[in-house]
Amino acid sequence: MHPNVSRVVAAAADAGLEITIHRFPEGTRTADDAARAVGCEVSQIVKSLVFMVDDTAVVALVSGANRVDMTKLCAALGASTARRADGDEARQATGVAIGGVPPFGHERAVGVVVDPDLLHHDRVWAAAGLPDAVFAIRPDDLVRVSGGTVADLAASAPG
Protein backbone atom coordinates (compact mmCIF):
# COMPACT_ATOMS: atom_id res chain seq x y z
CA MET A 1 0.00 0.00 0.00
CA HIS A 2 1.31 3.48 -0.90
CA PRO A 3 2.51 5.46 2.18
CA ASN A 4 -0.07 8.23 1.56
CA VAL A 5 -2.90 5.70 1.55
CA SER A 6 -1.45 3.92 4.58
CA ARG A 7 -1.52 7.20 6.57
CA VAL A 8 -5.19 7.72 5.71
CA VAL A 9 -6.15 4.16 6.64
CA ALA A 10 -4.12 4.40 9.88
CA ALA A 11 -5.69 7.74 10.85
CA ALA A 12 -9.15 6.26 10.37
CA ALA A 13 -8.21 3.14 12.36
CA ASP A 14 -6.79 5.29 15.18
CA ALA A 15 -10.24 6.90 15.38
CA GLY A 16 -11.95 3.50 15.48
CA LEU A 17 -13.09 3.57 11.85
CA GLU A 18 -12.38 1.00 9.16
CA ILE A 19 -12.36 2.37 5.61
CA THR A 20 -12.08 0.55 2.30
CA ILE A 21 -9.90 2.12 -0.37
CA HIS A 22 -11.13 1.99 -3.96
CA ARG A 23 -8.68 2.58 -6.81
CA PHE A 24 -9.74 3.90 -10.21
CA PRO A 25 -7.02 3.82 -12.90
CA GLU A 26 -8.90 6.47 -14.90
CA GLY A 27 -8.32 8.83 -11.95
CA THR A 28 -10.46 10.69 -9.45
CA ARG A 29 -8.50 13.95 -9.45
CA THR A 30 -11.55 16.20 -9.98
CA ALA A 31 -14.96 16.04 -8.32
CA ASP A 32 -16.59 15.23 -11.67
CA ASP A 33 -14.06 12.44 -12.34
CA ALA A 34 -14.58 10.98 -8.87
CA ALA A 35 -18.38 11.11 -9.10
CA ARG A 36 -18.32 9.33 -12.47
CA ALA A 37 -15.89 6.68 -11.16
CA VAL A 38 -17.82 5.83 -7.99
CA GLY A 39 -21.31 6.38 -9.43
CA CYS A 40 -22.55 9.10 -7.11
CA GLU A 41 -23.68 12.72 -7.25
CA VAL A 42 -20.96 15.39 -7.49
CA SER A 43 -22.29 16.84 -4.21
CA GLN A 44 -21.22 13.59 -2.46
CA ILE A 45 -17.58 14.14 -3.38
CA VAL A 46 -15.38 15.72 -0.71
CA LYS A 47 -13.01 18.22 -2.25
CA SER A 48 -10.03 18.58 0.12
CA LEU A 49 -8.75 22.03 -0.78
CA VAL A 50 -5.68 23.58 0.81
CA PHE A 51 -5.70 27.30 1.57
CA MET A 52 -3.20 29.65 3.12
CA VAL A 53 -5.21 31.51 5.76
CA ASP A 54 -3.21 34.31 7.39
CA ASP A 55 -0.13 32.39 6.15
CA THR A 56 -1.19 29.13 7.86
CA ALA A 57 -2.26 26.10 5.84
CA VAL A 58 -5.87 24.98 6.32
CA VAL A 59 -7.74 22.16 4.59
CA ALA A 60 -11.31 22.97 3.56
CA LEU A 61 -13.52 19.91 3.01
CA VAL A 62 -16.07 21.09 0.49
CA SER A 63 -18.91 19.45 -1.40
CA GLY A 64 -17.92 18.73 -4.99
CA ALA A 65 -20.85 20.90 -6.09
CA ASN A 66 -19.58 23.99 -4.21
CA ARG A 67 -16.89 26.62 -4.51
CA VAL A 68 -15.28 28.24 -1.48
CA ASP A 69 -16.12 31.85 -0.66
CA MET A 70 -12.87 33.36 0.69
CA THR A 71 -14.75 35.90 2.82
CA LYS A 72 -16.70 33.09 4.50
CA LEU A 73 -13.51 31.07 4.99
CA CYS A 74 -11.82 34.04 6.70
CA ALA A 75 -14.90 34.69 8.84
CA ALA A 76 -15.07 31.03 9.92
CA LEU A 77 -11.46 31.13 11.06
CA GLY A 78 -11.28 34.70 12.37
CA ALA A 79 -8.68 35.48 9.71
CA SER A 80 -8.02 38.50 7.55
CA THR A 81 -6.60 36.88 4.39
CA ALA A 82 -7.04 33.63 2.49
CA ARG A 83 -5.85 32.29 -0.84
CA ARG A 84 -5.52 28.90 -2.52
CA ALA A 85 -2.26 27.21 -1.63
CA ASP A 86 0.05 26.49 -4.54
CA GLY A 87 1.18 22.93 -5.21
CA ASP A 88 4.33 23.21 -3.10
CA GLU A 89 2.47 24.73 -0.15
CA ALA A 90 -0.22 22.04 -0.32
CA ARG A 91 2.34 19.25 -0.41
CA GLN A 92 4.38 20.81 2.41
CA ALA A 93 1.26 21.18 4.59
CA THR A 94 -0.28 17.75 3.96
CA GLY A 95 2.47 15.57 2.47
CA VAL A 96 0.23 14.95 -0.55
CA ALA A 97 0.03 16.49 -4.02
CA ILE A 98 -3.05 18.44 -5.12
CA GLY A 99 -5.59 16.03 -6.61
CA GLY A 100 -5.11 13.39 -3.92
CA VAL A 101 -5.27 15.40 -0.68
CA PRO A 102 -7.22 13.40 1.90
CA PRO A 103 -9.45 14.89 4.62
CA PHE A 104 -7.19 13.39 7.33
CA GLY A 105 -3.97 11.40 7.59
CA HIS A 106 -1.78 14.36 6.71
CA GLU A 107 1.95 14.25 7.46
CA ARG A 108 1.57 17.24 9.80
CA ALA A 109 -1.27 18.57 11.92
CA VAL A 110 -3.34 20.99 9.86
CA GLY A 111 -6.60 22.77 10.66
CA VAL A 112 -9.72 21.50 8.89
CA VAL A 113 -13.00 23.26 8.10
CA VAL A 114 -16.00 21.27 6.80
CA ASP A 115 -18.71 22.49 4.41
CA PRO A 116 -22.10 21.72 6.04
CA ASP A 117 -23.53 20.71 2.64
CA LEU A 118 -21.59 17.45 3.01
CA LEU A 119 -23.70 16.60 6.06
CA HIS A 120 -26.86 16.21 3.94
CA HIS A 121 -25.73 12.82 2.58
CA ASP A 122 -25.71 9.31 4.06
CA ARG A 123 -22.16 8.89 2.79
CA VAL A 124 -19.59 10.92 0.94
CA TRP A 125 -16.45 9.99 -0.98
CA ALA A 126 -13.01 11.46 -0.24
CA ALA A 127 -9.50 11.19 -1.66
CA ALA A 128 -7.24 8.64 0.02
CA GLY A 129 -3.86 10.26 -0.66
CA LEU A 130 -3.49 9.54 -4.38
CA PRO A 131 -5.27 10.93 -7.47
CA ASP A 132 -6.85 7.53 -8.19
CA ALA A 133 -7.78 6.41 -4.66
CA VAL A 134 -10.98 7.21 -2.75
CA PHE A 135 -13.03 5.91 0.17
CA ALA A 136 -16.60 6.26 1.37
CA ILE A 137 -17.35 7.69 4.80
CA ARG A 138 -20.36 8.89 6.76
CA PRO A 139 -20.31 12.69 7.09
CA ASP A 140 -20.38 12.61 10.90
CA ASP A 141 -17.32 10.32 10.85
CA LEU A 142 -15.64 12.67 8.37
CA VAL A 143 -16.04 15.56 10.80
CA ARG A 144 -14.97 13.48 13.79
CA VAL A 145 -11.89 11.84 12.25
CA SER A 146 -10.69 15.02 10.52
CA GLY A 147 -11.15 17.06 13.69
CA GLY A 148 -12.89 19.56 11.46
CA THR A 149 -15.04 22.52 12.39
CA VAL A 150 -18.29 22.77 10.44
CA ALA A 151 -18.73 26.24 8.92
CA ASP A 152 -20.53 27.73 5.94
CA LEU A 153 -17.92 28.09 3.20
CA ALA A 154 -19.93 27.86 0.01
CA ALA A 155 -19.99 30.69 -2.46
CA SER A 156 -23.48 31.73 -3.50
CA ALA A 157 -24.54 30.49 -6.89
CA PRO A 158 -24.37 33.19 -9.56
CA GLY A 159 -27.68 34.47 -10.71
Molecular structure report:
This protein is α/β, with parallel strands linked by helices. It has a single domain (3-150), classed as YbaK/aminoacyl-tRNA synthetase-associated domain (YbaK protein). It is built from five helices and eight strands. Strands 1, 2, 3, 4, 5, 6, 7 and 8 form an eight-stranded mixed beta sheet that branches. It is globular, with a radius of gyration of 14 Å. It starts with a helix and ends in a 9-residue tail after the last strand.
Beta-strand fraction estimate? 15-25%
Portion of residues in helices? 25-40%
Major pleated sheet: 8 strands, mixed
| CATH class bucket | Alpha Beta
Brief summary of the model shown:
This protein is α/β, with parallel strands linked by helices and 159 residues long. The chain contains five helices and eight strands; from the N terminus they run αβαββαβαβββαβ. It has one domain (3-150): YbaK protein.
